[in-house]
């Protein structure tokens, strides 16, 4: 596996290989080993054409911890602003002998196009509404840590499924690992062609969706991808779909709550639940670092 573009490229043996590296790095790091030489002499370029806090920081930090040289390239301060195409930008980065290109782009399919054009290893850090495979891996690892398994778990994903690259990647990976998946959201936020999602249940009723679930993943309402008309209904969304304590009580007693972040507090969930007892949101962030260390290492050795 040279590139990480889509969950479609991840076979069970890849998942298990990356998970093993994730656990090894996390254990060593927690025992005080915070510097490694596995990527010494390698360069990682991080062109991000959309905003990011978690993904960019953790990919950069992961590279630094492994001993690589890392360079951030922000879309807004790059020569793209002067009219340079994505193709020319990426060929320029490749000419600087980049070993890894970690790309976030607003266009679905951008990482796939780039991977076909360059010799560098390419990691998709989120492309439009298409995929976010490293998020799916860290979500799966976080669930595995807390629940000890994924097979047979009842997992519900609530929110803006239509615009969510996290939902697409999570659904594919968690289904591959044997979870039962329900998706829930207003009709306008559910994909029109549901058959491509291969989920087990689809509902617009959040109370029904949450009942008896082991894991509830809430998604950010993607205001930047919504039509203007949606703005007037945010409060209604919060009332009809937002997580509150009453709805938490519908889940299994030992259920966990997740969100890829950033959270729109008071919209997808009540503020006090964001870092509450059931929340794994900060575990997801922490595991993002070790997941990205593992991804670099796995792509190098395979
Ligand atoms: N989960 C996620 O992709 O967050 P960022 O946009 O902050 O990277």
From TrEMBL:
Molecular-function annotations in GO: amino acid binding; aspartate carbamoyltransferase activity
Aspartate/ornithine carbamoyltransferase carbamoyl-P binding domain segment(s): 2-145
PROSITE patterns according to UniProt: CARBAMOYLTRANSFERASE
Residue numbers binding L-aspartate: 82, 165, 220
Pathway: Pyrimidine metabolism; UMP biosynthesis via de novo pathway; (S)-dihydroorotate from bicarbonate: step 2/3
CC terms in the record's Gene Ontology section: cytosol
Residues of the Aspartate/ornithine carbamoyltransferase Asp/Orn-binding domain: 151-296
Pfam families: OTCace, OTCace_N
Listed EC numbers: 2.1.3.2
Keywords (A to Z) from UniProt: Pyrimidine biosynthesis, Transferase
GO biological process: 'de novo' pyrimidine nucleobase biosynthetic process; 'de novo' UMP biosynthetic process; amino acid metabolic process
InterPro entries assigned: Asp/Orn_carbamoyltranf_P-bd, Asp/Orn_carbamoylTrfase, Asp/Orn_carbamoylTrfase_sf, Asp_carbamoyltransf, Asp_carbamoyltransf_Asp/Orn-bd
Residues given in the record as carbamoyl phosphate binding sites: 54-55, 104, 132, 135, 261-262
The reaction(s) this protein catalyses: carbamoyl phosphate + L-aspartate = N-carbamoyl-L-aspartate + phosphate + H(+)
Similarity annotation: Belongs to the aspartate/ornithine carbamoyltransferase superfamily. ATCase family.
Assembly notes: Heterododecamer (2C3:3R2) of six catalytic PyrB chains organized as two trimers (C3), and six regulatory PyrI chains organized as three dimers (R2).
Main function: Catalyzes the condensation of carbamoyl phosphate and aspartate to form carbamoyl aspartate and inorganic phosphate, the committed step in the de novo pyrimidine nucleotide biosynthesis pathway.
HAMAP family, per the entry: Asp_carb_tr
Name of the featured protein: Aspartate carbamoyltransferase
